[in-house]
Protein backbone atom coordinates (compact mmCIF):
# COMPACT_ATOMS: atom_id res chain seq x y z
CA UNK A 1 0.00 0.00 0.00
CA UNK A 2 1.33 3.37 -1.03
CA UNK A 3 1.43 5.81 1.89
CA UNK A 4 1.03 9.51 1.28
CA UNK A 5 3.95 11.50 2.65
CA UNK A 6 4.05 15.24 2.12
CA UNK A 7 1.84 17.53 0.12
CA UNK A 8 3.99 18.72 -2.76
CA UNK A 9 1.54 21.06 -4.37
CA UNK A 10 -2.12 22.09 -4.20
CA UNK A 11 -3.71 22.96 -7.52
CA UNK A 12 -7.18 24.41 -8.06
CA UNK A 13 -8.99 21.06 -7.93
CA UNK A 14 -6.33 18.49 -7.02
CA UNK A 15 -3.59 18.14 -4.40
CA UNK A 16 -0.40 16.23 -5.10
CA UNK A 17 1.41 14.09 -2.49
CA UNK A 18 4.72 12.28 -2.50
CA UNK A 19 4.82 8.56 -1.61
CA UNK A 20 7.48 6.10 -0.41
CA UNK A 21 8.34 5.50 -4.05
CA UNK A 22 10.22 8.48 -5.57
CA UNK A 23 8.72 7.63 -8.99
CA UNK A 24 5.09 7.74 -7.81
CA UNK A 25 2.72 10.44 -6.60
CA UNK A 26 -0.81 10.43 -5.21
CA UNK A 27 -3.32 12.83 -6.75
CA UNK A 28 -6.20 13.78 -4.47
CA UNK A 29 -9.28 15.02 -6.34
CA UNK A 30 -10.99 17.65 -4.16
CA UNK A 31 -14.56 18.94 -4.44
CA UNK A 32 -13.26 22.41 -5.34
CA UNK A 33 -14.34 23.78 -8.69
CA UNK A 34 -12.74 26.87 -10.14
CA UNK A 35 -13.34 29.09 -13.12
CA UNK A 36 -11.90 32.23 -14.64
CA UNK A 37 -8.26 31.39 -13.77
CA UNK A 38 -9.15 30.54 -10.19
CA UNK A 39 -11.04 33.78 -9.50
CA UNK A 40 -14.22 31.86 -8.68
CA UNK A 41 -14.00 28.76 -6.48
CA UNK A 42 -16.84 26.67 -5.04
CA UNK A 43 -17.17 23.27 -3.40
CA UNK A 44 -19.45 20.86 -5.18
CA UNK A 45 -20.29 17.69 -3.22
CA UNK A 46 -19.16 14.44 -4.89
CA UNK A 47 -17.25 16.21 -7.66
CA UNK A 48 -13.83 14.95 -6.52
CA UNK A 49 -15.00 11.36 -6.38
CA UNK A 50 -16.83 11.54 -9.71
CA UNK A 51 -13.83 13.09 -11.50
CA UNK A 52 -11.40 10.61 -9.95
CA UNK A 53 -13.49 7.64 -11.12
CA UNK A 54 -14.12 9.23 -14.49
CA UNK A 55 -10.44 9.99 -15.04
CA UNK A 56 -9.40 6.44 -14.11
CA UNK A 57 -11.88 5.03 -16.65
CA UNK A 58 -10.69 7.33 -19.45
CA UNK A 59 -6.98 6.88 -18.70
CA UNK A 60 -7.41 3.09 -18.82
CA UNK A 61 -9.15 3.39 -22.21
CA UNK A 62 -6.37 5.60 -23.56
CA UNK A 63 -3.67 3.32 -22.21
CA UNK A 64 -5.39 0.35 -23.88
CA UNK A 65 -5.40 2.30 -27.15
CA UNK A 66 -1.62 2.69 -26.94
CA UNK A 67 -1.41 6.19 -25.48
CA UNK A 68 1.14 6.26 -22.65
CA UNK A 69 -0.26 7.85 -19.48
CA UNK A 70 0.85 8.46 -15.90
CA UNK A 71 -2.09 6.45 -14.51
CA UNK A 72 -1.14 3.56 -12.20
CA UNK A 73 -4.18 2.65 -10.08
CA UNK A 74 -7.16 3.95 -8.15
CA UNK A 75 -6.41 4.07 -4.42
CA UNK A 76 -9.68 5.37 -2.98
CA UNK A 77 -12.77 7.35 -3.96
CA UNK A 78 -10.74 10.54 -4.23
CA UNK A 79 -7.19 9.33 -4.82
CA UNK A 80 -5.19 7.86 -7.66
CA UNK A 81 -1.58 6.70 -7.86
CA UNK A 82 0.37 8.13 -10.81
CA UNK A 83 3.89 8.21 -12.19
CA UNK A 84 5.90 11.22 -11.09
CA UNK A 85 6.68 13.17 -14.24
CA UNK A 86 8.52 16.31 -15.12
CA UNK A 87 5.56 18.37 -16.35
CA UNK A 88 5.68 20.31 -19.60
CA UNK A 89 4.08 23.71 -18.83
CA UNK A 90 1.82 23.90 -21.88
CA UNK A 91 -1.78 22.83 -22.42
CA UNK A 92 -2.77 21.08 -25.65
CA UNK A 93 -6.30 21.79 -26.89
CA UNK A 94 -8.11 20.07 -29.75
CA UNK A 95 -11.52 21.29 -30.89
CA UNK A 96 -14.11 19.44 -32.95
CA UNK A 97 -16.84 22.06 -32.52
CA UNK A 98 -16.44 25.81 -31.89
CA UNK A 99 -16.98 26.95 -28.28
CA UNK A 100 -15.41 28.98 -25.48
CA UNK A 101 -12.30 31.03 -26.10
CA UNK A 102 -12.19 30.15 -29.80
CA UNK A 103 -15.52 31.94 -30.31
CA UNK A 104 -14.42 34.92 -28.20
CA UNK A 105 -11.07 35.27 -29.96
CA UNK A 106 -12.10 34.68 -33.56
CA UNK A 107 -15.73 35.74 -33.52
CA UNK A 108 -16.94 32.39 -34.85
CA UNK A 109 -20.35 31.09 -33.91
CA UNK A 110 -20.62 28.54 -31.11
CA UNK A 111 -21.56 25.09 -32.37
CA UNK A 112 -20.10 25.11 -35.87
CA UNK A 113 -18.21 21.97 -36.89
CA UNK A 114 -14.46 22.37 -37.14
CA UNK A 115 -13.08 20.40 -40.05
CA UNK A 116 -10.32 19.45 -39.66
CA UNK A 117 -10.28 19.79 -35.87
CA UNK A 118 -8.06 22.64 -34.62
CA UNK A 119 -5.02 22.33 -32.39
CA UNK A 120 -3.79 25.02 -29.97
CA UNK A 121 -1.08 25.36 -27.34
CA UNK A 122 -1.57 27.51 -24.23
CA UNK A 123 1.02 28.39 -21.62
CA UNK A 124 0.05 27.18 -18.14
CA UNK A 125 0.13 30.47 -16.26
CA UNK A 126 -2.96 31.77 -14.44
CA UNK A 127 -1.37 35.18 -13.74
CA UNK A 128 -1.03 35.66 -17.49
CA UNK A 129 -4.45 33.99 -18.09
CA UNK A 130 -2.96 31.01 -19.95
CA UNK A 131 -1.98 32.89 -23.14
CA UNK A 132 -1.96 31.06 -26.45
CA UNK A 133 1.58 30.23 -27.59
CA UNK A 134 3.03 28.59 -30.68
CA UNK A 135 5.74 26.03 -31.42
CA UNK A 136 8.32 28.77 -31.90
CA UNK A 137 7.67 30.16 -28.38
CA UNK A 138 7.83 26.66 -26.92
CA UNK A 139 11.23 26.02 -28.51
CA UNK A 140 12.72 29.45 -27.82
CA UNK A 141 11.73 29.50 -24.15
CA UNK A 142 12.70 25.86 -23.69
CA UNK A 143 9.29 24.64 -22.45
CA UNK A 144 9.63 21.58 -24.69
CA UNK A 145 11.84 20.41 -27.55
CA UNK A 146 10.61 20.31 -31.17
CA UNK A 147 10.47 16.50 -30.92
CA UNK A 148 8.35 16.71 -27.78
CA UNK A 149 6.03 19.17 -29.53
CA UNK A 150 5.54 16.70 -32.39
CA UNK A 151 4.79 13.91 -29.89
CA UNK A 152 2.33 15.98 -27.82
CA UNK A 153 0.44 16.97 -30.97
CA UNK A 154 0.30 13.42 -32.31
CA UNK A 155 -0.85 12.00 -28.95
CA UNK A 156 -3.47 14.73 -28.50
CA UNK A 157 -4.99 13.90 -31.91
CA UNK A 158 -4.82 10.18 -31.15
CA UNK A 159 -6.81 10.86 -27.96
CA UNK A 160 -9.38 12.58 -30.19
CA UNK A 161 -9.88 9.54 -32.38
CA UNK A 162 -10.35 7.29 -29.34
CA UNK A 163 -12.55 9.56 -27.23
CA UNK A 164 -14.73 11.12 -29.96
CA UNK A 165 -15.98 7.61 -30.73
CA UNK A 166 -16.30 6.59 -27.06
CA UNK A 167 -18.44 9.64 -26.19
CA UNK A 168 -20.50 9.31 -29.36
CA UNK A 169 -21.43 5.79 -28.31
CA UNK A 170 -22.84 7.41 -25.16
CA UNK A 171 -24.77 9.98 -27.21
CA UNK A 172 -22.32 12.81 -26.57
CA UNK A 173 -20.27 15.16 -28.74
CA UNK A 174 -16.68 15.72 -27.64
CA UNK A 175 -16.60 19.44 -28.43
CA UNK A 176 -13.07 20.18 -27.20
CA UNK A 177 -10.60 19.15 -24.49
CA UNK A 178 -7.33 20.09 -22.86
CA UNK A 179 -4.44 17.72 -22.19
CA UNK A 180 -1.19 18.12 -20.29
CA UNK A 181 1.92 16.03 -20.82
CA UNK A 182 5.11 15.36 -18.91
CA UNK A 183 8.36 13.43 -19.22
CA UNK A 184 8.93 10.08 -17.55
CA UNK A 185 12.26 8.30 -18.16
CA UNK A 186 12.75 10.31 -21.34
CA UNK A 187 9.32 9.55 -22.77
CA UNK A 188 6.46 12.05 -23.25
CA UNK A 189 3.37 10.68 -21.51
CA UNK A 190 -0.11 12.00 -20.76
CA UNK A 191 -0.56 13.46 -17.28
CA UNK A 192 -3.01 15.58 -15.28
CA UNK A 193 -6.61 14.37 -15.69
CA UNK A 194 -9.35 13.83 -18.22
CA UNK A 195 -12.73 14.77 -16.76
CA UNK A 196 -15.69 17.04 -17.56
CA UNK A 197 -13.67 19.80 -15.83
CA UNK A 198 -11.27 19.92 -18.77
CA UNK A 199 -13.40 19.11 -21.79
CA UNK A 200 -16.71 20.10 -23.34
CA UNK A 201 -19.37 17.45 -23.86
CA UNK A 202 -22.78 18.10 -25.39
CA UNK A 203 -25.74 15.79 -25.74
CA UNK A 204 -25.62 14.84 -29.41
CA UNK A 205 -29.32 15.58 -30.02
CA UNK A 206 -30.30 18.44 -27.70
CA UNK A 207 -26.75 19.89 -27.51
CA UNK A 208 -27.30 20.32 -23.77
CA UNK A 209 -24.00 21.08 -22.02
CA UNK A 210 -22.81 18.28 -19.73
CA UNK A 211 -19.45 19.72 -18.66
CA UNK A 212 -17.81 22.51 -16.66
CA UNK A 213 -19.53 25.18 -18.77
CA UNK A 214 -22.53 24.49 -16.48
CA UNK A 215 -20.40 25.98 -13.67
CA UNK A 216 -18.78 28.74 -15.75
CA UNK A 217 -22.18 29.85 -17.06
CA UNK A 218 -24.06 29.36 -13.76
CA UNK A 219 -26.43 26.80 -15.31
CA UNK A 220 -26.53 24.61 -12.16
CA UNK A 221 -26.72 20.82 -12.06
CA UNK A 222 -22.95 20.59 -12.49
CA UNK A 223 -22.19 17.34 -10.65
CA UNK A 224 -25.51 15.89 -11.81
CA UNK A 225 -24.34 16.41 -15.41
CA UNK A 226 -20.94 14.83 -14.70
CA UNK A 227 -22.73 11.82 -13.16
CA UNK A 228 -24.95 11.58 -16.23
CA UNK A 229 -21.86 11.51 -18.46
CA UNK A 230 -20.38 8.75 -16.29
CA UNK A 231 -23.65 6.80 -16.39
CA UNK A 232 -23.78 6.99 -20.19
CA UNK A 233 -20.25 5.55 -20.39
CA UNK A 234 -21.19 2.72 -18.03
CA UNK A 235 -18.98 3.95 -15.18
CA UNK A 236 -20.20 2.69 -11.80
CA UNK A 237 -20.21 5.31 -9.06
CA UNK A 238 -20.71 4.68 -5.33
CA UNK A 239 -23.90 6.15 -3.83
N1 LIG B 1 -9.50 24.17 -20.49
C1 LIG B 1 -9.01 23.69 -19.30
N2 LIG B 1 -8.21 24.50 -18.54
C2 LIG B 1 -7.88 25.76 -18.91
C3 LIG B 1 -8.39 26.25 -20.12
C4 LIG B 1 -9.20 25.43 -20.89
O1 LIG B 1 -9.26 22.54 -18.94
O2 LIG B 1 -7.14 26.43 -18.17
C5 LIG B 1 -10.36 23.31 -21.34
C6 LIG B 1 -11.79 23.77 -21.36
O3 LIG B 1 -12.55 23.09 -20.39
C7 LIG B 1 -12.23 23.38 -22.76
C8 LIG B 1 -10.95 23.46 -23.59
O4 LIG B 1 -9.87 23.38 -22.67
O5 LIG B 1 -12.70 22.05 -22.78
C9 LIG B 1 -10.85 24.70 -24.42
O6 LIG B 1 -11.01 25.81 -23.56
P1 LIG B 1 -11.11 27.29 -24.14
O7 LIG B 1 -9.80 27.65 -24.78
O8 LIG B 1 -12.33 27.41 -24.98
O9 LIG B 1 -11.18 28.22 -22.85
P2 LIG B 1 -12.38 28.66 -21.89
O10 LIG B 1 -13.52 29.11 -22.75
O11 LIG B 1 -12.67 27.43 -21.08
O12 LIG B 1 -11.76 29.76 -21.07
Description:
With 239 residues, the chain is of the alpha+beta class. The chain has two domains: 4-83, Phosphorylase Kinase, domain 1 (2-Layer Sandwich), CATH 3.30.200.20; 86-221, D-amino Acid Aminotransferase, Chain A, domain 1, CATH 3.30.470. It has helices at 47-64, 100-106, 135-140, 146-169, 213-216, 222-233, and strands spanning 4-10, 14-19, 24-29, 32-35, 40-43, 71-74, 79-83, 86-97, 113-123, 132-133, 172-184, 187-190, 199-203. Strands 8, 9, 10, 11, 12 and 13 form a six-stranded antiparallel β-sheet that branches. The protein has a five-stranded antiparallel β-sheet with strand order 1-2-3-7-6, with helices on one face. A two-stranded antiparallel sheet has the order 4-5. A hairpin with an 8-residue loop joins strand 9 and strand 10. Helix 1 (47-64) runs parallel beside helix 6. The radius of gyration is 17 Å and the shape is globular. The protein starts with a strand and ends in a 6-residue tail after the last helix. The relative contact order is 0.16. It binds uridine-5'-diphosphate. Uridine-5'-diphosphate binds next to helix 2, strand 11 and strand 13.
Amino acid sequence: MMEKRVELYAGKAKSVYTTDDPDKLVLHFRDDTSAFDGQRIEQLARKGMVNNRFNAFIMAKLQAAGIPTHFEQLISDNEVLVKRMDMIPVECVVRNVAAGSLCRRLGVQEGIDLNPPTFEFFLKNDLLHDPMVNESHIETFGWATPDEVVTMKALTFKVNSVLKQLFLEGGMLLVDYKLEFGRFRGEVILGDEFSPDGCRLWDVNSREKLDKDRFRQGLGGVVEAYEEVARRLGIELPQ
